[in-house]
Amino acid sequence: MPAMGDALPEKWSDELQREGRVIFPIRAAAVGRELGFIWLVVAVTQAISFGQSWGEGDTRQYLAMAVVLSAMVATFWYTSRLYARYPALTVDKFGLKVGLKKSIRWSEVGAIGLLRGSGPSGRMLPIIPKDAWGKELIIPATAAKDMKALQQWLEELLKEQLPQP
Predict the structure, then answer these.
(1) What is the largest CA-CA distance in the chain?
(2) How far is CA 121 from each of CA 95, 114, 134, 138, 146, rounded to the nearest angstrom?
(3) pLDDT tens readout for residues 76-103
(4) Per mean pLDDT, which of 12-16, 35-39, 116-120 is the most reliable?
(5) Residue 122 near residue 148 (C-beta atoms within 8 A)
(6) What is the predicted pLDDT for the residue at 121?
(7) Residue 164: Cβ within 10 Å count
(8) Between the CA atoms of 16, 162, 128 and 148, what dihedral angle is there, to the nearest 10 degrees?
(9) Can you tell me the distance from the alpha carbon of 78 to that of 71, in angstroms, rounded to the nearest whole number?
(10) Residue 165: what pLDDT?
(11) How many other C-beta atoms are found inside a 10 Å radius of the C-beta of residue 136?
(12) What SS3 state is found at 39?
């Protein structure tokens, strides 16, 4: 069964109507892409490190080991969240929640921001609070395959939440 983030906005709307919320678990394709980049960096740093001779007390071997250990921790962290179907984003009638802790109520949302980052679909989608001193809520690209469609869908939901004159 494909992740909710791989579906179309119509399915998101149906799910919201039927269940009262839409949960976007972390998508395997996005995790694979990010882990691929991490391990590519590891391979390059290791090739550079081992391509040169090491002297007595050379710190490059410790740096190389730190890079590999960091990549192993990142791999464990991402795969454990993927296995647990950790929610990247939850949308319900009360508001938005990124992960398990960061949330914002619809009444506190000032605007759905512009996509940030590289790539045709963007990498992050900021949710801008009404309070000028409030902190943005950032929706990661692991939530949905088509971040532009997610942005437009959330803008529609925000309009529905506004008081009608």
Answers:
(1) 76
(2) 23, 11, 26, 15, 6
(3) 877 777 776 677 899 999 999 998 889 9
(4) 12-16
(5) yes
(6) 47
(7) 4
(8) 50
(9) 10
(10) 59
(11) 14
(12) helix
